[in-house]
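Hey,

The postdoc asked me to send both predictions to you directly instead of through the lab channel. I've kept everything plain text so nothing gets mangled by the mail client. Protein one:
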Amino acid sequence: MERALVIGGTRFIGRHLVEELLEHHYDVTIFTRGTRDDPFADDDRVTHREGDRTNDSALEAAAADVDPDAVFDCVAYHPKDVRAATRLFADVDAYVYVSSGAAYGSEEIPKREGETALEPCTTDQETDDSSETYGNRKAEGDRAVFAAAERGVNAMSVRPCIVYGPHDYTERLDFWIDRVNEYDRVLVPGDGTNVWHRAYVEDVASALRIVAERGEPGEAYNVGDRRLVTLGESIELIASALDTSVEVVDAGRRELEAGELEPADFPFYRSYPHVLSTAKLAGLGWESTPLSTAIDRSVADHRESDRDGADHDPGREAEERVLGILETM
């Protein structure tokens, strides 16, 4: 494969994907609306096409002009987008849809491709834009990929769990980095052992490329860190990357109520473990970045940014009330 079209490509996963493809000597074209800063604006290795991916005519024109070998669909949030793309790019060597671990509809440990049930998706959910239907819509996008493969399209799906790393606009990890950087004591919901599988963004980018090159049409591939960590361990890794020490203070639901808080107010908390099997992807030769390296790079990027995760802040004053109560127990 030589020519790649990235639908998206300037913000987070897509940005890292473009860098990954350039490192592997692809001719890269990005297709975006042009509403965000373009980190590749001055890079003559990247061709830019402006258009709305929900406009089939614009996407069809891109298909004709670029004639890509591989298409990476980073911003397909509705099933109709996937159906349109798999029709317009029916003749490419690889169409790779960025799905999500949220597509799984059954709580199993681990969640496996082709075994764990996907979320259902009603007609109303297909066109909804709320976060509540995100997993349903991603699951229906997966089903659109499978249907396209049955028609002979070389379509595949990649399902990341929670993605983190440099340029992460969600700022979920930034919240915890900021807490460790600013305070000696960090309040953690539960007993610190809850697990919500995460994926380092550079590993997601390499997974997308490898699936395009080696994946099987009609297949889905999970991607996530090969080493699982608890929330408590994550905070210790962040402290190490910051070259500081921190006291991790666990708080159960009853203690949190004293600050009018609940566990779900904190990023990365999940009452039941969310774990994806990554064996299928590893079977293609994919490897994940060592966890300490991924955290070190994420912390370094945080320090150079103005991100602080404030949108996820449950309120430090409320946390201090809980910490004060725990101190007297």
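Protein two:
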Amino acid sequence: MHTDLVAALDIGGTKIAGALVDGHGHILIRAQRPTPAREDGDTVMRAVEEVLGELTVSPLWGRVTAVGIGSAGPVDASAGTVSPVNVPGWRGYPLVGRVRAAAGDLPVELIGDGVAITAAEHWQGAARGHDNALCMVVSTGVGGGLVLGGRLHPGPTGNAGHIGHISVDLDGDLCPCGSHGCVERIASGPNIARRALENGWRPGPDGDTSAAAVAAAARSGDPVALASFERAAQALAAGIAATATLVEIDIAVIGGGVGKAGDILFAPLRKALSTYATLSFVRNLTVAPAQMGTDAGLVGAAAAALAKRPDAAAAGV
């Protein structure tokens, strides 16, 4: 067994998580800080350095051979920079160089958070054993990543598989990205809730207007809530079918908060998929809920770091 470890960082708008991870995907040590998302870039970086600092003082640090980073995007892996939408202080921020300096010049691998979750699901979760897969995160936004030919396919800058910004409605609403009718504009949690409210759904006495509250209303038979989830499912089905038609994936894995809605999402999604994925080579496409939970970003970042090691093929990562 290989005794080397990798360090993993999962950087989002709410928290910065770090871990030491072994070659089987087991998390041995954790560290975490809240993301000071409204502060300047160097203040955010100090929180990252504090997380790394906690890891470097561990007696296990001497066995760490690389660092993997999964970051909210957009990321540019070719330049080593990040510009997360939800961290305004980081625009073209040289994260890879700063992390390398803080980690004692170890090799650093950067991928987007959607790609990180894809790496985790392929290594340990719902896409395990599938050589061609799309994994999606449907929550505040809609992100994703691809596995093609048995390998993670992040693309040159680390953003391949970003299904949230495929347009599925040519005359649809303007998306903040500048395009119209994007999957994210229809299927993200806030947009599911927005559409339900616009069409007359009203929250309960607690005033909760989240997508989870809409899902609860849909489960109790509220027609407006059901219709909002059906519309989201239709947008996801169109995006998944387009991806499958383009690159021949055989499974689509859906995680994130909206993915937790269960049959309220998956039943109309499977039905819609049967009308979009009609060609012979995409007809057997399956859809499954994600399995990796909140550690997916860390495990995926670790997988990306492990894949870059010289012995990666032997390790089967």
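Summary for protein two, as requested: The longest helix spans residues 223-247.

Thanks,
C.
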